[in-house]
Description:
The complex is a heterodimer.
Chain A: H1 4-9, H2 11-14, H3 20-28, E1 31-35, H4 41-51, E2 55-59, H5 84-95, E3 100-104, H6 113-117, E4 122-125, H7 130-143, E5 147-153, E6 156-162, H8 170-173, H9 194-212, E7 221-226, E8 231-236, H10 259-262
Parallel strand pairs in A: 1-2, 1-4, 2-3, 4-5
Antiparallel strand pairs in A: 5-6, 6-7, 7-8
Helix pairs in contact in A: 4-5, 4-9
Chain B: E1 3-5, H1 13-23, E2 30-36, H2 39-50, E3 54-61, E4 64-70
Parallel strand pairs in B: 1-2
Antiparallel strand pairs in B: 2-4, 3-4
Helix pairs in contact in B: 1-2
Amino acid sequence: MLTEAQIERYSRHIILREIGGKGQKILFNSRVLIIGVGGLGAPVALYLAAAGIGTIGIADADAVEISNLQRQVIHHTTDVGKAKVLSARDKMTAINPEVEVIPHHTWVRADNILSIIKDYDFIIDGTDSFATKFLINDACVLAGKPYSHCGVLGFSGQTLTVLPGQSACCRCIFREPPPPELVPSCAQAGVIGVLPGLFGTIQATEAIKYLLSKGELLTDRLLFVDALEMRFQEIALERRNDCALCGDAPTITELRDQSEAMTLCDLGKA
Amino acid sequence: MTILDLRGVKCPINFVKVMLALEELEIGEVLEFFLDDGEPIGNVPRSLEQAGHKLLARNRVGDYFRLVVEKGEEAD
């Protein structure tokens, strides 16, 4: 049973036919992992906590820097120097003390990601490097975990929801991370601060819809947004039978770190 | 049948409480509740019908209303 305080707190959810009291209880019994509490992870963490997702994991090894504050709205000026997972946890529990926040104060790597994601129902990729994005894609597909992919840079970004084995994964589209010389350099790594806010809220929406089994997920279509022109485009995708990861005869059957792309400085620090 | 007394409960929490009570019922079962005059009686019955439920009774009892709603099919 929902308490009086919960009925009030979640009243705007409960009113929705797609949620109701039953849906709100589903959310409360759900577990979502956010990898990276930077620009994308900030709105995801805030909104999922506010929404009453019962257990939210946050994984990040970074500490808050002043250059983060232009877009990573979960971190405040007084948090500079503090571990991002702890800074984020404070804000999440301040918004909603009912939510259990599990900090994973580490980078995800090939040797730890499967053990981190295994306890969660849905994974959010809020990271900023190509190598980590492929690692998350590979781990989620191998473990059968639905997840939301996203990347932002400059004034544009893209997002896709992946249901492993059912819908296109990132390797169906991009077979490998880009070679280091094609990865944007620091000078090209600017990002308009609102952009991860726009995309993070889309990712949080996908997580909630997945948990509730409502609506249509952003699967098999890559949403591309150019915020400078304010154009939203969808690119139709299909799961490839010959995908090296999720195809019929996969050649990628274990995880590996791709360090060549990981060492680039602060790529967008999405 | 217990009566849900929503006198003194403001919009939209009164509506939320009716919806939560209806969730516990089977389609076709009915719920009786009391509602204040003014904004509540103006909003809640309309909202329940929009949500697919059927209003069976609406009677003024002094300064409040007694309503009976039947859980609709679209509601699940």
